[in-house]
Give the backbone structure.
Amino acid sequence: MEISEMAVRDAYRITPEHLPDRRGLFFEAWRARALTEALGHEFTVSQVNYSVSGRNTLRGIHGTTVPPGQAKLVTCVRGAALDVVVDLRIGSPTFGMYDVTLQEAGSGIGVYLADGLGHAFLALADDTCMNYLCSEEYVPGTMIDIQALDPELAIPWGLTEPPIRSDKDAAAPTLAEAAERGLLPVYEQLVPTAARGTRTSAEGEVRL
């Protein structure tokens, strides 16, 4: 597998190598040792979540206050999604930047997000199922919601009609509003990164 650093600091794209034969194909979604080498620390899974969405459903941008934080490894296991990582951490070198990954069930591509990063996706097909491996158990009251249609972020969702969203997501503040209210986490590099992959934004665009 290839683990490459994304345009947002402390986010990584994991691209598995497919091994096809007459039965179909096989791939390793991720391996603990390889991910530890890329991150510079272990990723421990404490909770596993799934979401199932109809086409044109937009979820996020969601993050978590630090502490407790909640790192995630997100993979599309059915359907397809336009997956987005946004840096919500005040003081981060990539604050306010995003990176985009097309996630399709057959590709096995995964995205790792460190504590304090925001996540959102647009379902591109009906019955799209996303799998979330989480480093911490969910703590009520710690979720951060940011407006996915924030014009300053200008994420290229490619919408042709209004998306389906929760009332909470539709009413979420912009990144600037959240910063003014003191809702965002502050960037702290708690563990030095021992090894970083090649920075790339080949799957998406980066904007300040």
Q: What stands out?
A: The radius of gyration is 16 Å. The helical segments are 32-39, 167-170, 175-180. DSSP finds three helices and 13 strands in the chain.
